[in-house]
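Weekly structure sync - notes
Attendees: PM, LS, DV (DV joined late)
Agenda: review two folding runs queued last week.

Item 1: First target. Sequence and structure tokens pasted below for the record.
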Amino acid sequence: MNKVPLTKQGAEKLRAELQRLKTVERPRIIQAIAEARAHGDLRENAEYHAAREQQSFIEGRIRELESKLSHAHIIDVTQLENNGKVVFGATVVLADEETGEEVTYRIVGEDEADIKAGLISVGSPIARALIGKEEGEVAVVQAPGGRRTFEIVEVRYE
């Protein structure tokens, strides 16, 4: 598996989730399974089957997080030289050339992307159009709704 880019904050968030799953959720499910077993016949015990299903989900998520973190290439954007160029991890303020409306995005790894929070995946059309450009340049984005142009107003490394 290739290295997957991840911001420092994204890696910390995944580590926190992994820690919570291992120290809080896993013991809670083990306890729930033990209690359900104590009720007797497991064939018709809905609590037991629900707890086993939850356990399976949690164990799968733990394996997934461990794999992602082991294959992560963690990038701390604050350590990069601030030269105004759009790179992975940068926060970019854009002005829509048609409407003048400003939007702010941070370019992050696929696992961190959340458009509502202004976090866009490095593989998204907008991010691909922005990478390598500098403040003041115009980026043309092939969006599903058609072609859009954005001026790069500001690039921050935070």
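Item 2: Second target, run right after the first with the same settings.
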Amino acid sequence: MERTPFTRGGYEALKKELEHLKKVDRPENIKAIEVARAHGDLSENAEYDAAKERKAFLDGRISDLAYKLGSAEIIDTDSLPTDRAVFANTVLLENIESGENSKYQLVGPEESDVDKGRISVTSPLGRAILGKEPGDEVVLQAPSGTKVFELVEIS
């Protein structure tokens, strides 16, 4: 089984979601199915169909989360170097062309969320950043052309 890197926070968030699905969402869905069944004819019962679809979604999500948690490898972020960019570090990049700064945390693919400043180490930008030191150039081949950044800071 291939191991997937996680920060402690990312692992705990998935674990919390799984518990919520099992202890809250699934029991609510089972009740919704029972109520819909009590309405009679299931062949024309939209409530029943919607509840069954929700059940399929919940079962799939629970299975997916259980697999992800089972293959998780939690990386101890306290012992990571800050002299070069590695998993879980936060990096400050300056776009050479525009002078604009961007801050990103390097995380595993399951934790990435660009809107929250978390990019995957397996993404093109994440791969370009890994191993770099402050002052190094980070070159990204993007569909819109080549982007060049300077790695300003690692924390």
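Discussion on item 2: DSSP finds three helices and seven strands in the chain.
Action: LS to circulate a short write-up before next sync.
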